[in-house]
Amino acid sequence: MANKYSFDDYNNAKAVVRRGYNKDAEEVLRWYYVNNPTYIEAHLEYAKTLLFEKSGDMENDLIRKNNGFQILDRIIANPKATEKNILTAYNAKIKSYFLDDEYFDAYDLCYSLLGTSQEPYCNYFMGCIESRLGDIYSAEERFKHTDGKYYDSINQEMAVISIAKGDFEQAEKYVNKMKKAKRPNDNRIPVEEIYLNVRKGDYKNAYELYKRFKARLRYVSPSYNNIGLFLEYKLGTNDLTNIGKNYLMSQVRDYNVKKTKSYIHRISDLGESKHLISGNRTFIDELFDFAQQCINDDIPFRSEIVDYYAIECYRDGMPSNIGYVKGDIPTNVIKVGALSGTKNIVSLYPMESLPYIRKIIEEKRGNERKRK
Fold this sequence. Notes:
Blueprint: H1 7-17, H2 23-35, H3 40-52, H4 58-77, H5 83-99, H6 103-113, H7 119-132, H8 136-143, H9 151-165, H10 168-180, H11 188-200, H12 203-217, H13 224-234, H14 247-253, H15 257-270, E1 276-277, H16 281-295, E2 302-303, E3 306-312, E4 314-315, E5 318-319, E6 323-325, E7 329-331, E8 333-339, E9 345-351, H17 354-371
Antiparallel strand pairs: 1-6, 2-3, 3-8, 4-5, 6-7, 8-9
């Protein structure tokens, strides 16, 4: 039977899907996967397409992810797969876990590959996870051990860390390195440059950048409209009286502790998030007061128009479970959001615990060593 699609069709389809979900191009990749059982590269390409090109339908994307992982697992178990094939499959799994905020699985898989040729890749992703879960100092150290790879991505990560630390000189260096990478369509550049100026208090320059890049910001910042409103308020051009039910902007305009606590209570009572504090309102209020004390002498791990802090909770020297993430994973860490440049708390959520992740992984590896 003649090939339905040529090899040129296959290569063109690979290029198309890298720009976003495309049903016709994906069908070409699917055909090559189904009709070439020994061509492992085609299997990898189709699996990555299922994992990284979202259809927009959450239920369908979950099915796509499961199918993609099944293909990758078969490649890893395939005795005819090369080491490069197997490591590429592992890399795809790590990236997929990371992009879906499944940090435990990503960190665990990275940890298992330390000591292999993929260690630089693993250190990069472990650093990204550590940064997002509040340990920016460990993240900085990880990024030093990537063998000079992932240079552009690390510049962006280090810009974020430097902005949070208030090291504006270093942050500017990293932003400038991002610009020199000659990627004019990289939407991360204006975002970090805006947040750098917000952190410095240079709202005028931040707003000029916002106006210039507004159309691109929506691709990387779901709250891009709030950035504009925040800056207009700071510049005195918008009194934020016509913001409707925009909770965050109402707090920017007229901060009120009672309103924050009421907001946290409502989310907890209604179960509006997969990240929920466990406990009654008295417990939540006590947690709020504890968080307030902690952030007064702390620096954020991320600084946008809201500064974010990671606070670990202990009782009698032991981790104290304060809630759950993703429905049923216990944690003793709270992610505290305070308005930029202030200690005025506007949000309080349980956050995945990096110490917990490390502990579970160490115990798991220890048990594996004992069995050997």
